[in-house]
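Team,

Forwarding the record for the chain on the shared tracking sheet. I've put the sequence and predicted structure together so nobody has to dig through attachments.
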Amino acid sequence: MSAEAVPVGIPRHHDAAVDEVRAAVRKRKKKKHILAQTTLAVLSVLWLLPIVWTFYISLRPYEDTQSSESLLGWPKHLNFDNYTKAWQQSDFLHFFINSAIITIPAVIITLFLASLIAFAVSRYTFRFNLVLLLVFTAGNLLPPQIILVPLYRIYLLLPLPHALNAKDVWYDSYWGVAAIHIAFQMGFATFVLSNFMKALPTELTEAALVDGASVWTQYRKIILPLCRPSLAALGVLMTTWIYNDFLWALVLMSTGSKRPITAALNNLKGEYFTDLNLLAAGAMMAAIPTLIVFFVLQKQFVGGLTMGATKG
């Protein structure tokens, strides 16, 4: 600040004091920034370390792990033989298709139904609005293990709708496993989408209503496009959770060839012996679809999390 710019009555040494305060504030902010970056870097390394170690083990021949001396040492040979063996031994392609048959419809139906419910409870006021939202949210608090036995009994007796296959029951069917995933994921998806929709300006739907737009038009052409980031974030999470599940497929399916990819990993384990190198290769291959989904929807996923964090 020049001498001419100094207001009358303020000492000239005031500029130096202000600069010192600003420098101290910048220094504290820089220290906090460095600390935050260091903490995130350490946490990232700790998070990725098991994955890197699994990938390393998957490349090692079993002969290199037989001796304890070579456990931490650099192996003589690194190759992808374990991947080829795991793919052939467990019929991975077949189980990948099984997982896709269960996961894709479950994610799509869950997001569609949850968006409809969230639209109703967030854009319209009625007597049981809050109660309805609490019912869907409370479903997330229910441990799935406590309903295994009654659900198993119901699945044995309940036939599939005629549109699917009237000759079979829900038990040991792809639709049965997908349905239970839809039921359990619906609460979380409804809770997230309803909070996101509540943050949208009500003037959007009010203006559309004045223009003569129906409820379906408001939902499909106005609200739903604005929810793409949150839908993408939920889609990534739902895909990961449903794809990686093994409990429901184990309980609600008796035919081993119908089970998802997690069953293929279980098939790599022997009764008396387990080749950890082979199992690590299978685990890395099983993780590929979820990684593809994440990288394809990465921008929308991060945008959905960021927008959800700043709403309120």
